[in-house]
Design goal:
CATH class of the largest domain: Mainly Beta
CATH architecture of the largest domain: Sandwich
CATH topology of the largest domain: Jelly Rolls
Number of domains: 3
Number of helices: 10
Number of strands: 11
Strand order of the largest sheet: 2-3-10-5-8-11
Radius of gyration: 22 Å
Structural class: alpha+beta
Low-confidence stretches: none
Length: 297
């Protein structure tokens, strides 16, 4: 398939005639994630000339190291990119490349609107000037990109809550780590005992339904940016992981009753299918539902 990422001519902001990243094997575009797109693809030739992307752009090498050239001012410089390294390119930053070796890659774009909204919400200021980096060996960024890719390619549909958590993590890390000047440290107000109890009760009340980050933030009476950080600090986990744990705990209770099959429990609790339920159950209890039921007999 073709990429859903917009590559523009940096001078005219019209579609670029030279930037074609190659064959895209998977994309999050059909999932409708807010503010972020992740794609996986491969190519043997990528020759963008003075191209730009209207979103913040990240390209991570998934295959073996290879040699390529990038234009630094008026000269091309040769560089060997290693597996897992990431090219970080802020929105509308022009780039010219000469890539003539085979590579597999993950591409991520982050909308400037989302980045601006998050930074204003957390720091009360516009997004600072951001820096390009061609060979970033950034373990945090790599982990988030791989998690986004895994969610977009998973057999079970990705929860909007999980997608939002990863997107906020990507945006927060990028804005903090790649600002040209040190920015003020973001501090979120804690949830507090009463507010935390209200949010956890809300999660239990809607345990079998789809819940969004906006839903939880509204229940807490906070902005979604502050809420996500405050929830992690107070509860010690992300909202999505807490929700999945509560669902499988409920599933365990239902299985103990002996009246429902595993597939019926999975369907009741809002999992995509039995395997989706089994994966989260095993992560929580270190055994599959089938193994648990066998131990009860």
């Amino acid at each position: 398939m073709k990429t859903s990422i917009a590559y523009l001519d940096a001078g005219t902001h019209t579609p670029s005639a030279t930037a074609d990243p190659g064959e895209i094997l998977s994309s999050s575009a059909p999932l409708g994630w807010h503010g972020v797109t992740v794609e996986r693809g491969h190519n043997s030739l990528f020759l963008p000339d003075n191209a730009a992307v209207p979103g913040h752009y990240f390209a991570m090498l998934l295959s073996a190291p290879f040699s390529w050239e990038w234009k630094d001012g008026r000269k091309f410089r040769r560089h060997t990119m290693r597996t897992g390294e990431i090219w970080v390119n802020p929105a509308y930053t022009p780039f010219s490349h000469r890539i003539t070796e085979y590579s597999k890659f993950a591409l991520v774009t982050l909308s400037t609107e989302l980045a601006g909204e998050l930074h204003r919400g957390l720091a009360g200021a516009p997004v600072p000037a951001l820096r390009m980096k061609h060979n970033s060996d950034d373990a945090v960024l790599r982990r988030i990109i791989l998690a986004l890719l895994a969610e977009s390619e998973g057999r079970a549909p990705c929860s909007p809550l999980r997608a939002a958590e990863l997107t906020v993590s990507l945006c927060s890390h990028f804005l903090a780590a790649y600002a040209r000047e040190k920015t003020r440290e973001w501090r979120a107000p804690g949830l507090g005992r009463e507010r935390a109890a209200r949010v956890l009760e809300y999660l239990d009340w809607r345990l079998t339904e789809e819940i969004t980050l906006a839903d939880l933030a509204e229940a807490a009476g906070m902005s979604k940016w502050h809420f996500l950080r405050a929830f992690r600090e107070t509860v010690g986990d992300t909202p999505h992981r807490h929700l999945m744990n509560r669902r499988v705990e409920k599933g365990l209770a239902l299985l103990r009753m002996g009246k429902w099959s595993i597939s019926e429990v999975a369907n009741h609790l809002g999992f995509a299918d039995q395997s989706h339920f089994t994966r989260h159950f095993k992560r929580r209890f270190r055994a599959t539902p089938g193994e648990y039921l066998a131990a009860l007999r």
